[in-house]
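For the sake of transparency, this paper describes our internal protein records without simplification. Such a record has a labelled line for the sequence and another for the backbone structure tokens. Nothing more is needed to write down the fold, since each code stands for a local backbone conformation. For reference, a complete record is included directly beneath this paragraph.
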Amino acid sequence: MEENGVEIERLQRELVDSKLLDTDKVSRSRIAMVYNVPEHFIGSNQSSYSSQEQLNMEFLTYNLVPTVNQYEAELNKKTLSRTEKAKGYRYKFNVASLLRADTQARGQFYQIMRRGGAYSANDVRRFEDLQPINKTGMDDYHISGDLYPIDMDPTLRKTNSSKSVAENG
């Protein structure tokens, strides 16, 4: 509806001004820098899903772990008595659960720890919140070569491997 003598002009404006969006991006970037977090943690859509996993690992490595280490050092220094320190007490935060989002890295880590004799099969199950298996060998520690019990004589390892090759050959 127009009245006589009144002309209607369309305004050439967007609903959201692009300068406002630029200001918003700069604000998010500054907030991320102040708190030392990746921008996607505060709602920036600058990363794809595949790169977010990498960004999460970088955040863990370069921000969270150093901060946790500082807390551990302060707690160990200020809250433990000399007697407790002498007994070996210490504060240690477990950030391993943060790796759960990265199943490939977690699997590789467990494989390395198993093959190096640091974890038993049941240790890995406990870390994954699974019930231990009560069977022979599940609590044994093995070393690669390929996966001999850690307390086995190295000369027997070679003998057993050559026997198994000869028997199966």
